[in-house]
């Protein structure tokens, strides 16, 4: 299991945090997903591909950079 840090743009509130965490946790292979609004990032553990995680975040309305 690996840990991945993903920088995310467009999050501004608790709802945004919850939406991104929910989207990431729905990706096959994601074990945990914790979003930090101040850092504008998510820390994800598991074996999901970056492509799948990026797609889930973008489908939720946020931008990965």
How would you sum up this structure in a few lines?
By secondary structure, this protein is an alpha+beta fold.
Can you offer a commentary on this structure?
The protein is of the alpha+beta class and 65 residues long. The chain has a single domain (2-64), classed as Alpha-Beta Plaits, CATH 3.30.70. Helix content is 34%, strand content 35%. The protein has two helices and four strands; from the N terminus they run βαββαβ. The protein has helices spanning 14-25, 50-59; strands at residues 2-9, 30-36, 41-46, 63-64. The protein has a four-stranded antiparallel β-sheet, with helices on one face. β2 (30-36) and β3 (41-46) form a beta hairpin. The relative contact order is 0.32.
List keywords for this structure.
Heavy-metal-associated_CS, copper ion binding, HMA_dom, alpha+beta, Alpha-Beta Plaits, globular, metal-binding, HMA_dom_sf, 4-stranded antiparallel β-sheet
